[in-house]
Amino acid sequence: MNTRLCAESILRVINDYQEALKDFSEEEFCRKPENGRWSYAEIYCHIIQVNMRSLLAVERCIYGKQQQKRDVAPLISRLILYFGQLPPGRIRIPANISAIVKVITKEEAKNDLIKFTGKLNELMPKILKCSPYQRIRHQRLGMLNCNEWIRFIEIYSIYHFKSLQKMKDSKR
Fold first, then answer.
1. Whole-angstrom Cα distance, residue 153 to residue 6?
2. Whole-angstrom distance, CA of residue 142 vs CA of residue 71
3. Where are the domains of the chain?
4. Which among 18, 35, 95, 103 is placed 20 to 30 Å from 66, CA to CA?
5. For the packed helices 146-170 and 40-62, what is the interaxial angle rounded to 10 degrees?
6. Which CATH number is 3-170 given?
7. Between vectors from CA 61 to CA 55 and to CA 75, what angle results, nearest 5°?
8. How far, in Å, CA of 33 to CA of 63, rounded?
9. Long-range contacts of the stretch 96-103 (C-beta < 8 A, 24+)
10. Residues near 52 by Cβ (< 8 Å), separated by ≥ 6?
11. Are 16 and 8 in contact (CB under 8 A)?
12. Where are the alpha helices (DSSP H) in the chain?
């Protein structure tokens, strides 16, 4: 897994998110579907929050806020990171993550995506030098190092972008 390529992929998919924003009116972006699912605004809020929290974990790895551990992620986590896909089926979002999701405006989404991109670009030189033994716990995947966190961000961003595209296509 090449961290630089993962970061470039993340930047491309974030650009895709920004481009997709142009396709929505403000009303359509914020409208909650009748089936109880999240609105586009809530999906954007969720992916931005998860990615920003993941970058905080990356920073903690970089600056050594945790003990260095040689523990590796569980097999299922390593398979997810290797194959670049989350397991099939619907993934249940932890309550603490779901509770902070809110409806945001297109402008807020655009600005938050720009902030995320800037933060990722700022951290990249440090990520490339980070110890592979400096790990921070992910709620589901276990102990991840900087490179694994970047791979997770890539996988998660792509997964949700595909979900957005399916949602958009189904409404047409």
1. 9
2. 9
3. 3-170
4. 95
5. 170
6. 1.20.120.450
7. 90
8. 42
9. 97/46, 97/49, 97/50, 100/49, 101/38, 101/42, 101/45, 101/46, 101/49, 102/42, 102/45, 103/30, 103/32, 103/39, 103/41, 103/42, 103/45
10. 112, 115, 116, 119
11. no
12. 3-21, 26-30, 40-62, 75-83, 95-98, 106-129, 146-170
- List the structure tokens of 21: 């924003």
pLDDT the model gives residue 110: 95
The two tokens of residue 54 are: 């993941």
Query: What is the spatial distance between Cα 1 and Cα 139, in angstroms, rounded to a whole number?
Result: 22
Only one residue has tokens 């569980």, namely 74
Residue 142 β-bridge partners? 138
Summarize pLDDT for 40-51 with one digit per residue, the tens: 999 999 999 999
Q: Which residues contact 143 (CB under 8 A, 6 or more apart)?
A: 69, 71, 72, 73, 135, 136, 137
- Quote the pTM value: 0.86
Question: Residues 80, 45, 117, 163: is their CA dihedral positive or negative?
Answer: positive
What tens digit of pLDDT does each residue of 120-135 get?
A: 999 999 998 888 888 8
Place of tokens 């903690």: 60
* Token code pair at residue 136: 């921070």
